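Aim 2, interim progress. The first record below pairs a target sequence with its structure tokens.
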Amino acid sequence: MPFTRMDQSTAAEWMNIGREVARRQAQMPTLIKSMLRQLEEQVDGFETNQLVHALQTATRAVRDQASEELIVAALCHDIGKVISVVNHPAIGAEILKPYVSREIYEIVRTHQDFQGRHYYALMEMNPNAREQYCHEPWYALAEKFTDEWDQASFDPEYETLPLTYFEPMIDRVFGKNLLANFDAEAQASA
């Protein structure tokens, strides 16, 4: 019988939990695609819905020959809006964190402050909020991400790649076996 308290658990029970989590984890690409499709329902006063915005941002990354990881991050940078617009950068970054480099995680986590250069003054906020990150090694890439791709991607006339173009990338990035070490250790101890 499975444990009802963690302090009474066994190694065998945790191995079983690890296997079950790995099975569920394998569905992550499907979940991400579903969340992206939900962005299609969100327009929030922009000229495009949030899925088109995400696709345009990722399309610009593709055309700028960004890495696959960065392209997927560009596609998913606003995925947190499915849950909350206010703190969507943190939500999106945390979803991406196990799958991308620390640099890309930080770019997604801070992209709102970088975008602020383009509109924070209109809301009586600090348009130079990005400057707090100026000494970070990823600062220049965050500027490129925001200034060249993200803030420019609300154009209904822009020739945008479809979600199907990005699906194999989503499968590869979010299909990483995060529990590979756990599985290897479990097999070695069995």
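The second target in this work package is listed in the same format:
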Amino acid sequence: MPDDARPCPCGSGLTSRWRNDARGIPLARVCPKCEEQKLSGYRPEVLTDGNYDADEPIDD
């Protein structure tokens, strides 16, 4: 098990991992059970196109 392996915050009890956007910015910890639901709030290009437009402020 990788060093950062931990139960998913969704409560499933499954091991989670970080899911990054297309630029490598971490978006959320997900497991197979909740990944689709958690990522559904992001525009598709954020997950697939590293050149996506970002007009949202990006945290430091």
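Helices lie at 35-39, 44-48. This observation will shape the mutagenesis plan for the next reporting period.
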